[in-house]
Amino acid sequence: MMKAAVVESPGKLSLRNIKIPEVDDYSALVRMEIVAICNSTDSKIKNGSFPGDITYPTTLGHEGIGTVIKIGKKVKSYKVGDRVINPQIVQSQIEGLSSTWGTMAEYSLVFDHNVMKSDKINDAEHGYDGVYETQKVIPANIPSRQAILLATWREVYSSFKDFGFQQGKSLLIFGGGPVGLSFVTLAKLYGMKPVCLTTRSQWKMDRAKSLGADEVFPADENLLLELNKYCSEGFNFIVDAVGSNDVINKAIQVISFNGTIGVYGTLSEQELRFGIKNSPFNWQLIVHQFPDYAKEAAAHEPLCEYIEQEKISSKDYITHEYPFEMIEKGFEMVEKNQALKVLLHLQ
Q1: Which of the chain's termini has less CB crowding within 10 Å, N or C?
Q2: Start-end of CATH 3.40.50.720 domains in the chain
Q3: What is the pTM of this model?
Q4: Who contacts 184 (Cβ-Cβ below 8 Å, separation ≥6)?
């Protein structure tokens, strides 16, 4: 048996003893080392506001790192001793539980996407999930604590193509959480300029500045006035890293002609409502609520190189660390807006 984070019902989180998942021909068993709370997705699953159908009780988590301890007979992409990112618990193996990825557990699984593809069983009929493509080995020279932000960075970086980001173009980010700050770091490396951010929190504004933001703006009653002063022709690209109608309606008023507003992550509301009175004639809105697995997988190697070159560092994002048993405390810090990235240690 093992301990796993289970959302029993909206608002009720427990550490439940459940069966250790079983390895099949195409999977490998992973002993988890550290997991991280996704401030948006995990919190919304926990409180019952995640869009789409969630069947409770459900296992939780999709950001984590562990070590392979057992492999199936057809597995070629992993070996015992490999550290891997983002294992998950397969829903069909958990009696009485659904799985919203289930990385927050003492043991989990990775699947050999490459072999499943070559054997032509990478389909729903054979229990295949697209997330398997994103399960990757972490290079031996990258410590787990440095690699843990790859789960966030890969998703953010993979959205650049969806939003059509261009070097030398201006970018404004609404939201100073781990996602918003990741957009700052990665957009600067990508060559966008200026890269700006707005948030309600002073300490997050300070963090954005330390990560290279060209300018930061308090999200107060003077925001639109200050943004128009700074970029009178509007921003070429705007990212809503919050996911709300209020942000979209503000973004419309400071987007450039033919600019792009990208909504990143899960929306907090079920309907989009916005007015276009104060917007330019031409602009586009792109809603990106879920990662493209192929693009996320492709982002793994270049981001690992950024870590090795010390161009990005998880220490800039990690603010709280607790043993796994203190998971409720971790969520409390997130809900109070006192944390960026919270780590939970299982070993």
Answers
A1: N
A2: 153-288
A3: 0.95
A4: 173, 195, 197, 208, 211, 212, 213
* CATH 3.90.180.10 correct for 2-149+317-345: yes
Candidates 35, 131, 114; CA nearest to 75 is 114
Contacts for 255 with CB less than 8 Å, ≥ 6 apart: 234, 235, 238, 261, 279, 280, 283
Strand order in the sheet with 195-199: 215-218, 195-199, 171-174, 235-240, 255-264, 283-288
Contact 85, 147 (CB under 8 A): yes
The pLDDT assigned to 93 comes to 66
- What span, in angstroms and rounded, lies between the C-alpha atoms of 290 and 160? 13
- For 68-108, the pLDDT digits (tens) are 999 999 999 999 999 999 999 876 567 789 999 999 999 99
CATH 3.40.50.720 matches 153-288: yes
Q: Which pLDDT score, from 0 to 100, does residue 277 have?
A: 86
Vertex 287: Cα angle to 282 and 288 (nearest 5) = 135
Determine how β-strand 235-240 pairs with β-strand 255-264: parallel
